[in-house]
Amino acid sequence: MDELPASLNAAEIRVLGSLIEKAVTTPDYYPLTLNALTNACNQLTNREPVVAFDDTTVVRALDGLREKRLATVFAGADSRVAKYKHTLTDALLLTPAEVALLCVLMLRGPQTVGELRTRTERLFVFDTLTEVEEALNALAGRQPQPLVTKLPRQPGTKESRFAQLFSGPIESSALKPVETGPRPEPATLAVRAENERIARLELEVSGLRAELTDLQAKFAEFRKQFE
Predict the structure, then answer these.
(1) Is 123 helix (H, G, I), strand (E, B) or coil?
(2) Co-location of 113 and 155 in the same domain
(3) Is residue 211 exposed (0-12), middle (13-18) or buried (19+ Cβ within 10 Å)?
């Protein structure tokens, strides 16, 4: 498959973006359990908008992504807990730079070239803005179907933003106005960083719990051999 499947809804976009992000940023705890994936979707940082998905919402989104061949259940021999992974790069031939851009666009909505360069640093390092533009242009000019689009510049802004097209065509009337308020204060940024650290710890704890469950089950089977 080298073209987009049916348009994804907002929950499917958030789940897919979260899976892509965690595959790169926390590979030791990937694929993700349902609990870890729900936590990833609901992070307070690096997400716009912030959501409060429950497990049911995430499962429904996973079912939709699996039908569209963009996610799958990981069936590892050593795992007794269901885990999930994305299959975007199996469905579409993409470079690491393109994957990083799509991921951030899924998680944070339309953004400028400068914003994308900064926000993709955890996933892929672009040395210059020109490199970001080249990758975006490749995604926008992709055939038979573009994966991103350049949005019209909004009044009062200096730069145009780019948006992903996995949700379907972008209607200009539905675009959220660019916020032009003051930059966040240092204390706000510190709180956001702390929230991100807590989210990472929650993900690690979830992974450790899954491993402990596996070990307990294996030990129980081993003990039965001597009963």
Answers:
(1) coil
(2) yes
(3) middle
Nearest to 89 by CA among 7, 160, 19, 172: 19
Report residue 84: phi and psi, to 5°.
Answer: -125, 145
* Structure tokens belonging to residue 33: 């359990």
Q: Residue 224 corresponds to which tokens in the numbers above?
A: 């039965």
75 and 162 inside one domain: no
Task: Give the tokens for residue 219.
Answer: 């030990």
CA 172/CA 195 separation, integer angstroms: 33
Contact 8, 68 (CB under 8 A): yes
Kindly state the tokens that stand for 34.
Answer: 């349902």
| 162 and 210 part of one domain | no
Amino acid residing at 219: F
- In this prediction, residue 22 carries a pLDDT of 97
Instruction: Using CB atoms within 10 Å of the CB of residue 182, give its burial: 0 to 12 exposed, 13 to 18 middle, 19+ buried.
Output: exposed
Our count of domains for the chain comes to 2
C-alpha to C-alpha distances, 13 to 20, 65, 143, 211, nearest whole angstrom: 11, 9, 21, 28
Band of pLDDT at residue 79, cut at 50, 70 and 90? low
Strand order across the 32-33 sheet: 32-33, 83-86, 71-74
This prediction has a pTM of 0.75
